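As noted in the main text, all predictions were made from sequence alone. Below is one such record, for Anticodon-binding domain-containing protein.
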Amino acid sequence: MFLDVNISRCTSIGKRYARTDELGVPFAITVDSTSSVTIRERDSKDQIRVSLDEAASVIKAVTDGQTKWEDVWSSYPHHSSESADD
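Prediction:
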């Protein structure tokens, strides 16, 4: 499994997401602050905000099939990111 960790603000997040989507990366993680990250799911383009401490366990639970993205999405602050690709 590959993850894209976006920590540079040199390029727009939407352009970075588009590049990783083309490569087939299932999740992108953008560092929001020293305590939280945004996780974006490639197929739905939906995003959730989680604490930095929870990020790895959320990704692991989804990729191991312990939970579905839809269930995770409904459990955390979220939004759709379709405009982020523009």
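The chain has a mean pLDDT of 78. The longest strand covers residues 36-41. These features were considered when defining construct boundaries for the mutagenesis experiments described in Section 2.9.
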